[in-house]
Design a protein that fits this description.
Blueprint lengths: L14 E7 L3 H9 L1 H7 L6 E7 L6 E7 L5 E12 L3 E9 L21 E10 L2 E9 L6 H23 L1
Antiparallel strand pairs: 1-7, 2-3, 3-4, 4-5, 5-6, 6-7
Helix pairs in contact: 1-2, 2-3
Family: Belongs to the AHA1 family.
Protein name: Activator of Hsp90 ATPase homologue 1/2-like C-terminal domain-containing protein
Pfam families: AHSA1
């Protein structure tokens, strides 16, 4: 039995960002899996990535830092759940401290509604000698529209930096 007062689902769909990179799949894959290369593009415009550690195996972990223009560091970490080189990466995604301990988003002044763990799936497809990359960020149902918009903007700005990095 239902009535018109039952709220409709407010679950937000996954965030999906697709981008074509003017580089072969193997190079784009390496840009995601080689710490030295990740440090060239990780983070939105104006941010740097002073630390990136990657243990690229199922069950292996990554730990990244991105530093804002004002000097604030934001750490993230995750566990690789699936690696199919050079086609697919699946990994968890959480905020962390510099030691790799999971921390709530509120640790960085963000909403306490932000989930402790999200899931990132990245696919790499050959596309006319270029690479079609599709990123899916799952588990964001509880975040605000503003946080979702900021997340999308951050990925797009990171991908702009990735495109530049792939030119060199």
């Amino acid at each position: 039995m239902s009535d018109n007062n039952t709220p409709k689902s407010t679950k937000k769909p996954d965030l999906i960002v697709t981008r074509i990179f003017d580089a072969p799949v193997e190079l784009v894959w390496k840009a995601w899996t080689d710490p030295e290369q990740v440090m060239r593009w990780w983070g939105p415009k104006g941010f740097t990535s002073p630390v990136c550690k990657i243990d690229l195996r199922a069950g292996g972990e990554y730990l990244n830092a991105m530093r804002s223009p004002e000097g604030q560091e934001f750490w993230s970490k995750g566990i690789y759940r699936e690696i199919v080189a050079p086609e697919r990466l699946v990994m968890t995604d959480s905020f962390a401290d510099e030691k790799g301990n999971t921390v709530p988003a509120s640790h960085y002044g963000m909403s306490p509604d932000w989930p402790l763990e999200l899931l990132i799936t990245v696919t790499f497809e050959e596309y006319d000698g270029k690479t079609k990359l599709t990123l899916k960020h799952s588990g964001i149902a509880g975040i605000s529209d503003t946080d979702r918009d900021n997340m999308q903007q951050g990925w797009n700005e990171s991908f702009d930096k990735l495109a530049e990095s792939l030119k060199s």
